[in-house]
Specification:
Radius of gyration: 19 Å
Oligomer: single chain
Order of helices and strands: EEEHHEHEHEHEHEEEHEHEHHHEE
CATH class of the largest domain: Alpha Beta
CATH topology of the largest domain: Peroxisomal Thiolase, Chain A, domain 1
Shape: globular
Strand order of the largest sheet: 1-9-14-13-12
Number of domains: 2
CATH architecture of the largest domain: 3-Layer(aba) Sandwich
Strand content: 15-25%
Bound molecules: oxa(dethia)-CoA
Distance between the termini: 19 Å
Structural class: alpha+beta
Number of strands: 14
Largest sheet: 5 strands, mixed
């Protein structure tokens, strides 16, 4: 959909846990190899939280960096939206806990559950609060402790995921060149069980049985999602650029969800976009779900890879199945 939300990025931040887990670490206890993991996924290492560290701690660190970069105090933030599939607690939202931890006022604070597409959902949602005047400084995050729902005995998923948080502060702008030029969000609930956690919700509350049957861990149909992801990434980028009336050559940078290097490579090669215009951090962090795009965006700003005036395409997909894209002139 073509639109013009006059928003700009005031600051970004990111945080990853200190503990690095390499592919070799997995080979010590699972029937896998560094070669298989690198060839099939592009992942070389990932970060895993320390005992007692969770999504809130990651979010606090990423948010403080974004606040410092924006030169803002916590009291100046008037909206918090966290995209997460792994909240600090089932209740309340991690956004409420973050509000108190940062020392913000009694501002609207909520989580978005759109899995790996969540950061794009959060960005699009916050932009609408800003556009209609209901907020002036929105703190958005993609924050995950994916390893808390990863079955470390299942080689098909254990090697894929990592923990991280990325934050951004959005604010309205008078600069006519900046803003979100187009965005698309979608979901296909018929494929809800392509990636899911069967236990611990209202359908099957936590019990000794759910623990014994490992139902609190993520189950994933990897192959089916692979095909969906390549096609969806390809069509979302193409259609979102078209909505905004820009050509793919005009894109300075594409920030895709980091689920698998091969998915990214095959989607962008079909689009004719060179890999040097594509953010990649899956080698260092694995799949960090909602955090992956947020983290890559912060890295791109921090390293000077993107600069004011650039057209940046965000694209993500995940459990739901969900998907989202946003084209931002920064
Ligand atoms: O974040 C959004 C949601 N998730 C995704 O986007 C994930 C999308 N899917 C993928 O990235 C890929 O499908 C995977 C990386 C998960 C798997 O790669 P694949 O090339 O699709 O492999 P596969 O599932 O078809 O499995 C091929 C073989 C199987 O063995 P057999 O049946 O051929 O004997 C698996 O059992 O590889 C085996 N395998 C492994 N071997 C060594 C699966 N995991 C491993 C492993 N190490 N870690």
């Amino acid at each position: 959909m073509k639109m013009k939300w006059a928003v700009e990025i005031a600051g970004t931040g990111a945080y990853v846990p200190e503990r690095v887990v390499t592919n070799e670490d997995f080979t010590k206890r699972l029937d896998t190899s560094d070669e298989w993991i690198v060839q099939r996924t592009g992942i070389r290492e990932r970060r895993i939280v320390a005992p007692g560290e969770g999504t809130l701690a990651l979010s606090v660190n990423a948010s403080r960096q974004a606040l410092a970069e924006a030169g803002l105090q916590p009291e100046e933030i008037d909206l918090i939206v966290i995209a997460t599939a792994t909240p600090e607690h089932p209740l309340p939202s991690t956004a409420c806990e973050l509000q108190a931890a940062l020392g913000c006022g009694w501002i609207p604070s909520f989580d978005i559950a759109a899995a790996c597409a969540g950061y794009v959902y959060a960005m699009v949602s916050a932009a609408q609060f800003l556009d209609c005047g209901m907020a002036t400084k929105a703190l958005i995050l993609g924050a995950e402790t994916l390893t808390s729902i990863t079955d470390m005995e299942d080689r098909g998923t254990a090697i894929l995921f990592g923990d991280a948080a990325g934050a951004a502060i959005l604010q309205p702008t008078d600069d006519p060149n900046k803003g979100i030029l187009a965005a698309r969000l979608g979901a296909d609930g018929a494929r809800a069980k392509a990636v899911w956690v069967p236990g611990g919700g209202s359908a099957e509350p936590a019990s000794i049985k759910t623990v014994n049957e490992r139902l609190h861990y993520m189950k994933m149909k990897g192959r089916a999602i692979y095909k969906f992801a390549v096609n969806m990434m390809h069509s979302l980028v193409r259609d979102t650029a078209e909505d905004a009336g820009v050509s793919l050559d005009d894109l300075a940078y594409v920030i895709p969800h980091q689920s698998n290097l091969r998915i990214i490579e095959s989607a962008v090669s079909r689009l004719g976009i060179p890999m040097d215009k594509v953010a990649i951090n899956i080698d260092r962090y694995g799949n960090t779900s909602a955090a992956s795009v947020a983290l890559a965006f912060h890295e791109a700003r921090e390293t000077g890879r993107i600069k004011s005036g650039d057209l940046v395409m965000f694209v993500a997909f995940g459990a739901g199945l969900t998907w989202g894209s946003a084209l931002l002139r920064i």
